[in-house]
Amino acid sequence: xxxxxxxxxxxxxxxxxxxxxxxxxxxxxxxxxxxxxxxxxxxxxxxxxxxxxxxxxxxxxxxxxxxxxxxxxxxxxxxxxxxxxxxxxxxxxxxxxxxxxxxxxxxxxxxxxxxxxxxxxxxxxxxxxxxxxxxxxxxxxxxxxxxxxxxxxxxxxxxxxxxxxxxxxxxxxxxxxxxxxxxxxxxxxxxxxxxxxxxxxxxxxxxxxxxxxxxxxxxxxxxxxxxxxxxxxxxxxxxxxxxxxxxxxxxxxxxxxxxxxxxxxxxxxxxxxxxxxxxxxxxxxxxxxxxxxxxxxxxxxxxxxxxxxxxxxxxxxxx
Length: 319
Hints:
Oligomer: single chain
Largest sheet: 7 strands, mixed
CATH architecture: 2-Layer Sandwich
Number of helices: 9
Low-confidence stretches: 308-319
């Protein structure tokens, strides 16, 4: 590890962040433009975050599944706003096995379309609802300006996808998951956030409403730390996700999606790190250290532990 001193946050916050991520061995640059390699220390932090989130998801009735990385391009074309919103960021596979494919395949930027296709097969009756599924995966978006953890072409996240019988149920789900994110970020990552509704121009492509939690970083800039979307019936109509209600009449489902990514690792670094280096919240830090002072008498104890015996302790991980 280099012995060169980190630039101060006041001097150059961006360079302080970049050097800290590299020198703390959290991540490194990949040979593919805009991609990153998450090193073991950074991945252990992500695993700890996964555990905290997964526990909350399962407590609210969600189950995990896995869906394919490659999506037929025609799937994205079915929802006009969705494909329009992601078109500049798509990576498209045109050849496989040495031959040109009959239909181009998109490396998933998100999974609403392929999951919508499957929900149309799985959901037949109101008895099948709600469907509450989450998946842990990576997604790919061809970003032009990238920074480790904060914005990379490939990143890791969880994406939840649910289907409901009514608008009210879908709206309650979107807001409930925003509350889950708020609880996780404030409790586990020790980052204060402000939850709220996104403006129309900032909505997720294809959503009726988008909600997010925003966090203030050490450079006094806000960072979007998690999003939850009420998709209305837009994807249900595009993919024919319908069910027979109690009156034996066909109805379109109401769907949601929500996600939180490895961007939060960047948020943790920028919120808790200081000019000396990396500082991690105790509940997520990969390395836990407890210092137990052994004192021969009260005088020695007063030197080692000034103040009240029950004063608050802080776990840190530094360079």
